[in-house]
């Protein structure tokens, strides 16, 4: 089934630990995105990638890094997790960047940092 | 930055109509999206408007007025399964999609 997968589904992490959230899409979309969703704040863009080999910073990039080695995968890494990074993380993809280009979301990863 | 406002919560009766308003202030407007998000699930695409006017898609319609920085999502013939959060998102430039905090709609029998 075509779509976006994320792993893990949920994770409890000790502060200071390193964590990589995985995202894979099989739609051959050029653009991929990482958002975090917090109650009352809506979805906020962390990092994005217009195409394989390129990445850019979104609205809340501090404490996160990404890489885009190929079209399908877009991992998000927390180098040293802090409690404020407790959130639900959604990966999304779109065929390209552009006005009408719809972003499709993965099922999310619920991360708790203690 | 972007400023996107939508009501926090709305309640309506099964079979009724509900209108969810969204106002925004943005630079480089390049379209407005509505997404539906059921609790614990991913957002799913509902509609896209870039020109003024009404876009109808089955029981759901979306309206845009660019001069007023205003959009609404109209849900007709409400069903219990329509209970969800509805997210207004404004696109600026090629990639930046800014989301409102979402409106939680509760449909009652």
Overview of this structure, please?
The complex is a heterodimer of chains A (114) and B (109). Chain A is an all-beta fold and 114 residues long. Chain A is 0% helix and 47% strand. Chain A contains no helices and 11 strands. In chain A, the strands form 2 sheets. In chain A, strands 2, 4, 5, 6, 9, 10 and 11 form a 7-stranded mixed beta sheet that branches. A 4-stranded antiparallel beta sheet of chain A has the order 1-3-8-7, with no helix packed on it. The relative contact order of chain A is 0.34. Chain B is mainly β. The N and C termini of chain B lie far apart (40 Å). The A-B interface holds A 31, 33, 35, 40-45, 48, 50, 56, 58-59, 90, 97-100, 102-108 and B 1, 4, 30-31, 33, 41-45, 48, 50, 87, 89, 91, 94-102.
Biggest interface and residues each: A-B, 26 and 24 residues
Question: Using DSSP, what is the number of strands of chain A?
Answer: 11
**Average residue-wise pLDDT of chain A:** 94
Instruction: Please describe the biggest sheet of chain B, giving its number of strands, its sense, and whether it closes into a barrel.
Output: 6 strands, mixed
The first-to-last residue Cα distance of chain A is 35 Å
- As a percent range, the share of strand residues of chain B is over 45%
| Helix-strand string of chain B | EEEEEEEEEEE
Number of strands of chain B: 11
Low-confidence stretches of chain A: none
* Structural class by secondary-structure content of chain A: mainly beta
Task: Give the end-to-end Cα distance of chain B, rounded to a whole number of Å.
Answer: 40 Å
Task: From the alpha carbons, calculate the radius of gyration of chain B and give it in angstroms.
Answer: 13 Å
Query: On the 0-100 scale, what is the average pLDDT of chain B?
Result: 94
Proportion of strand residues of chain A: over 45%
> Helicity level of chain B, as a percent range?
under 10%
């Amino acid at each position: 089934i075509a779509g976006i997968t994320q792993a893990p589904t949920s994770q409890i992490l000790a502060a200071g630990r390193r964590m990589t959230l995985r995202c894979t899409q099989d739609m051959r979309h050029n653009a991929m995105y990482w958002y975090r969703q917090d109650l009352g704040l809506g979805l906020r863009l962390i990092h994005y990638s217009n195409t394989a080999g390129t990445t850019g910073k979104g609205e809340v990039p501090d404490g996160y890094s990404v890489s885009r080695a190929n079209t399908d995968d877009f991992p998000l890494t927390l180098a040293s997790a802090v409690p404020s990074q407790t959130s639900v993380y959604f990966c999304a993809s779109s065929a390209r960047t552009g006005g009408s280009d719809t972003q499709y979301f993965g099922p999310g990863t619920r991360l708790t940092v203690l | 930055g972007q400023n996107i406002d939508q009501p926090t919560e709305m309640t309506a009766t099964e079979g009724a109509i509900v209108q969810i308003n969204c106002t925004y202030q943005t630079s480089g407007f390049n379209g407005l999206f509505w997404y539906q998000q059921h609790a614990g699930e991913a957002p799913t695409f509902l509609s896209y408007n870039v020109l003024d006017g009404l876009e109808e898609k089955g029981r759901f319609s979306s309206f845009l007025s660019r001069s007023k920085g205003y959009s609404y999502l109209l849900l007709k013939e409400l069903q219990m399964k329509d209970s969800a959060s509805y997210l207004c998102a404004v696109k600026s430039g090629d990639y930046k999609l800014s989301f409102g905090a979402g409106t939680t709609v509760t449909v009652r029998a």
